[in-house]
Amino acid sequence: MFPTVSHFIEYLFGIQVPLPFNTFGVFVALAFVAGYWAFSQEAKRKEALGKLQTVKKSIVTGKPASTNELILNGVFGFLIGYKLVYALLNYQLFVSDAQTVLLSLQGNFIGGLFFAGLFAYWDYKEKNANKLPKPKTVEVVQHPHELMGTLIVWAAVWGFLGAKIFDNLEHWDTFVKDPIGSLLSFSGLTFYGGLICGGAAVLYIARKNGIKPLHMLDIGGPGMMLAYSVGRIGCHMSGDGDWGIVNVHPKPFAWFPDWLWGYTYPNNVANEGERIVGCVGRFCNELPMPVYPTPIYETIVCFILFLILWRIRHQIKLPGMLFGVYLMMNGTERFFIELIRVNTKYTVAGIQFTQAELISLLLFLSGLALVINAVKNKEKLANY
Predict the structure, then answer these.
(1) Measured between alpha carbons, how far is 32 from 158 in angstroms, rounded to an integer?
(2) 40-43 contacts: CB < 8 A, separation 24 or more?
(3) When you count CB atoms within 10 A of the terminal residue's CB, does the N or C end of the chain come out lower?
(4) pTM for this structure?
């Protein structure tokens, strides 16, 4: 396993390059890049079909930098410098435990002041360079795909918060023991929490910018499936604990790779299992028994589902139907993967289930409802 990018580089080239990047975080970033690409492509397609309209906005140009802008830039610069300079001066600590460095209150005050002045000065110079004797109001045209970058940022922020909230609800005992640590930790993220909260934020911003909810949902379906597939690569490569149950069954086919059937996740970032003899460092644990590598299963299945959605999106004309199909695919995939995946189980009226199983069932039913609604109201939705 490769808990950090440095481990991956060492595996490929045999050299140790100390970098403060964890593998899971890199693939989360790549997942958002993939989602942004799919969102943008689908927004352009819908605009070309006349389903999305451009928005005219009035902006004021030629104004000098205001006091509030200078203060905000200064505060932002201070935070950057406070942490960046401290991290560079304590680079080994940053490499070994970037999370603690970033989330602690420790920092470099002088570095913060320097970057605060630098950021404020940049803003002042930039605004002054474009200052006019009399500021004027101009009208600009915003295309729907130009909004996708903003939407991705909102999805990232609220998705992370939602993923943390749902994960802590799922692991309530751990949260109660260390609430601050659980909330600030970068590990422990529940996909459905991110989907629900991030999706709600995206719909809110899209609606404010003239994009109707059903069209925004359809834009997001294929992209979210692709992003999920890419993100799961990070789960597998880092060994974040999101694996399956113990699998000691014989392989169904002789040619089937061992690592794809049962895997022990050596050097996993979750530090689960037994200590590896002779290993030195933080990530030296390996599971005592092989488990189903469910993240890689989801990577493969969800990429195939993305390709299907990407292909059929041209044939689906009714707003909301494509997203309904996405929800049904997503719910079905996750429901069945839960059967071989490690997770917290709840019991209600004698029925055992996981949080993901319950939500995946609700998502499937919601998707089915969207599809039925689209078919029932196709005449009404034709001009939506």
Answers:
(1) 13
(2) 40/145, 40/148, 42/218, 42/219, 42/222, 42/223, 42/313, 43/143, 43/144, 43/145, 43/147, 43/148, 43/219
(3) C
(4) 0.85
